[in-house]
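User: Can you predict the 3D structure for this chain?
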Amino acid sequence: MTRIVDRVRDLAHALFHSFWTPTPATLRRWAVAAIVANAGITVTGVVVRVTESGLGCPTWPRCTPDSFLPVAHPEISPINTAIEFGNRLMTFLVLAAGAACLLAALRLAPRRPALVRLAWLQPLGVAAQALWGGLVVRSALNPVTVGMHFLISIGLIAACYAFYARSREGDGPPVRMVHRDIRVLAFVLVAAVFVLVVAGVVVTGSGPHSGDEAASRFGFDLEMVARLHADAAYAVVGLTFALLFALHVTDAPGRARRAALVLLGVELAQGVIGYVQYFTAVPAALVALHALGATLVWIATLRVLYMMRSRGPLPAPVTRPLDAVPA
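Assistant: Here is the predicted structure, written as structure tokens:
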């Protein structure tokens, strides 16, 4: 028992110092944790919708009109309430990861203002996302507010990835590692993937998984918007092929070529999931898996973009005086 207590104390001590007296390595770990947490809450938000749990907690910020915690309600399934409340609790995990990133950026020596600015986007974004979540509930899961809820998460993931990418490099001016036209093509690909994600949001808002029986839907023809979404997917895959070919023939850095190859693999897997769910009447489990795939495609696309430039090596760490480190 004593050994377990000592182990837990050591882990808590290491966790505290990972953001209070951070190193570049521990700061990067918190950046990864923030990406994972934001991707996680994005997917659990979709799980809420496909399980018809969107109004499992029918009010906001309370779960019910009289309680912040779930209570038995004759008109709401306890399972739906637990799923919706669990997604709300995920917000605190995302906020904790964002707060740790901000503290680590503020405490890093030497302080890097660019990292601090990027870190501030996380707690501010979580606050905006939480407030928007209240609007989602109060609008009875209007598809516009639900779709924007997902897109805000996509934006937060982009902010987290930017923080991660900057934590791995210095503060010098950006230097292109590939031909200028290839870099432009990468930006076009990022824009195309974002359009693809928006099209997916429209498809989901037109499909059968509204989050609750009382929720409204977009008035679009589902087959038509699904085909438009597929066309956008073809365009993204084509752009990725073109980018991968350009990187290969120009003998671009290996890390950029590998990142593009990983992106293509994720896109193809996502395409398989999309077609299977379309031809199997859009089962709930595959919708959630497709949302995970969309998140991974977005992250993999951002990774390709950041692999194409460099800002030089990390600045040399500064050793804090012993009296600055809490006992």
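Strands lie at 175-176, 309-310. The longest helix spans residues 78-107.
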